Amino acid sequence: MTLTLEEAGRALADPAxxxxxxxxxxxxxxxxxxxxxHWVEAPGYNPFWAITKHADVLEIEREHTxxxxxxxxxxASAVQDEINKRxxxxxxxxxxxxxxxxxxHRVIRAIGADWFRPKAxxxxxxxxxxxxxxxxxxxxxxxxxxxxxxxxxxxxxxxVILSLLGLPExxxxxxxxxxxxxxxSDDGDLRRGETPEELLAVLMEFFAYFQEITEARRARPTxxxxxxxxxxxxxxxxxxxxxxxxxxxxxxxxxHDTTSSTIAGGLxxxxxxxxxxxxxxxxxxxxxxxVDEMIRWVTPVKEFMRTATRDYELRGVxxxxxxxxxxxxxxxxRDEEVFDDPFRFDVGRDPNKHLAFGFGVHYCLGAAxxxxxxxxxxxxxxxxxxxxxxxxxxxxxxxxxxxxxKRLPIRYALRGxxxx
Length: 420
Fold this sequence. Notes:
Helices cover about 50% and strands about 10% of the residues. It is built from 16 helices and 14 strands. One of its GO terms (molecular function) is steroid hydroxylase activity.
């Protein structure tokens, strides 16, 4: 695939590029090789610098007082950027941890931090193992074929994170639909509509739901994460309605969508690399390394944006105060200077310095949970798996933010339920 540098840069602002691995990685490899700090002017978008080298993404993540999340934490159209700016000025709209900088970020992050520490995660492992068994059993019930994404992968992590929040199972399907509409706004199969107003309607439905949860948990706390969020206080005052709802939204959505992408993409990688599947089945002790390789391979979060607060020089290029930079995580995770043979899927890769969870103060709050969920699922699946192959063509979602496979048709044979 022959691309100019300008075409390669514009691919980062094209949702369809993320549904085409060959096109995306050809563009990213060209940028890493020839112009790793590349100015992008894409139709319909405000311009930005594309940062594609692992070392440079790491440097900008470390310089969190120079490169801020606000006012442009995610890549969006110029029209949506302006709408987001007006909403922020009015104090309304989504304001999650990924929208914040210190000191607000540090204070708000601390509200849920204890729920994701190792001790809390260990306490959840029996429930996670139970849910992993339930969804491998579900594969057996479905017979010998299924769409692994839609019938298994999107549901298992959803049950985990919403159980942590303490939400009723009767609401899980609603949460799944809203999450897919929120993160799938660039994909014709997933979005509710194409206009900013229709995307706002998705957010407002989230907010209305979580406003009810907040009122219920303030009246009667139930010892779950939703209660901790609802009753959190900053400087002696409760969070305002938008910040409270935003906290729920980021936990409920990012807490399952990224993990489902990892599990589905990881299974796809094992099918495509049967030698690695055999290696992992022969040596289950490799599973923790294999999970991190799946995370690197899939890289569910495609980008975050930062804005420079002062002039900053990177690889001889001056990024001016006020300029936006796009941190390309799929590119950093295929950097030839960091990873030996980065386009080889290797379940024993060690070290594996991937940046799929970010780095520094904005390191993913749920990283440990994501690893535990993926490990528990494959611990349950692999001993029962007799055979597996594709039963159709996998399809990836069109996105510039979060995504992965949206369909993975498979044919398989499973042994009966494992004894524990």
